[in-house]
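Tip: read the tokens left to right.
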């Protein structure tokens, strides 16, 4: 029995498009990491706590939607790229902050 509002699993008869999906995830991760770094670096010039607060609030606000869409066939590749991009962007921001 499935819970209300749950997204059904994709049909098992269709093959998973790994090459295309991974390429999309990598592209989205690169764009997201660049955006996170650029926006975070600009906010950090004002004050570092502002950059941290805005990033945490943005991620916390989008997490419920991302969690609901995680099993949608096309969106899962995009969402995995966004998740990886956010982590990479935060890591680059942290390295840039420590290097200064």
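Filled-in amino acids:
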């Amino acid at each position: 029995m499935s819970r209300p509002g749950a997204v059904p699993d994709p049909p098992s008869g269709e093959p998973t498009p790994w090459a295309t999906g991974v390429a999309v995830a990598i592209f989205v991760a690169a764009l997201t990491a660049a955006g996170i770094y650029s926006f975070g670096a600009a906010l950090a010039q004002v004050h570092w706590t502002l950059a941290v607060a805005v990033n945490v609030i943005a991620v916390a606000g989008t997490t419920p939607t991302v969690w609901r869409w995680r099993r949608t066939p096309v969106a899962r590749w995009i969402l995995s790229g966004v998740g990886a991009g956010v982590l990479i962007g935060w890591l680059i921001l942290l390295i840039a902050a420590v290097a200064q």
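The chain has three helices and no strands. The helical segments are 18-46, 48-69, 75-99.
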